[in-house]
Amino acid sequence: MSLQDTTDLCFPQLFNYSCKKPVSLLSETMLLHVLLSCISLVTVVLNLMIIISVSHFRQLHTPTNILLLSLAVSDFLVGLLSMPVDILRKTSCWFLGDSLCSLFIYVSYIITSASVGVMVLISADRFVAICDPLHYPSRVTERRAKVCVCLCWLISALYNIILVKDELIQLGMHNSCYGECVIIVDNITGTIDTVLTFIVPVFVIVVLYMRVFVVAVSQARAMRSHVTAVTLQLSVAATTKKSELKAARTLGVLVIVFLLCFCPYYCYSIAGSVLFDRFSEFVYYLFFFNSTINPLIYTLFYPWFRKAVKLIITLQILEPGSCETNIL
């Protein structure tokens, strides 16, 4: 092997066992690194603001916000871990070893599964709030929301350790050469995973939100027609109707954006090599970009988030008793 050939290898000292360095234009690589690094930084900062806001201010300790907090944690981890490491994994050689490669892939799977599970919980939360508002305060409590979130992350961790157990036992078993970090899931396991982590959750989300939409439309018509038959049940429901409908619309936007970002990725996973490589890169980064869009949705639709960010940036949250601030 010539000297010129060895300079193209990730580990020149290993000769035939080393992977070749990814071939790409320096300008394209630099532009991609800068762009994705900026997106990663924005994702981390915005989601960190949500985590601090919901955790610090007592008024924001509601079941719905507990679910949003969990989603922000997963989005924060995407920006902090998944985006930077995946940039390294796809645009250069992998120098961190097989152990960190397997660990990174395992953690990435946990984050993705947990995000999908939280979206299902958010849809269920809105379903109960809109379709059964009288029993919502008793059925959906802060404690139950925390338990559901913990179970969601625990189940995700246990499920994915089963999915990648062979990779964790035999490190680097699917790497064809040194300097590579990949994992290959067989067709049967991949199909089962797609059904459990995509098709079933999306079906549940769509069904729940279709029901929420139908009930919301009927409630809006009732409000416009000035229904005069007021019972105790209707009067209690009316006090929460407006705010719950607004929350349902906001979280509906969140769910729709989630589906638009996740569906192309899973559709590509099902289609496999049928699609072009450029399109595969697009759906892959769109999948990650969802974690950046979510906090922007909060900024547009939640005044409390904008107020909380102002208090955080001006360091007013460091003042004694700031957790009791009227944020709503």
Task: Kindly summarize this structure in a few lines.
Helices cover 74% and strands 0% of the residues. With 328 residues, the chain is mostly helical.
The residue ranges in which pLDDT falls below 50 over 5 or more consecutive positions are: 227-240
Which bin fits the share of residues in helices?
Answer: over 70%
- Average pLDDT confidence is 80
Number of strands: 0
Give the CA-CA distance, first to last residue.
Answer: 68 Å
Please describe the biggest sheet, giving its number of strands, its sense, and whether it closes into a barrel: none
CATH topology: Rhopdopsin 7-helix transmembrane proteins
Structural class: mainly alpha
Helix count equals 11
Protein name: G-protein coupled receptors family 1 profile domain-containing protein
GO cellular component, one term: plasma membrane
Keywords: Cell membrane, G-protein coupled receptor, Membrane, Receptor, Transducer, Transmembrane, Transmembrane helix
GO biological process, one term: G protein-coupled receptor signaling pathway
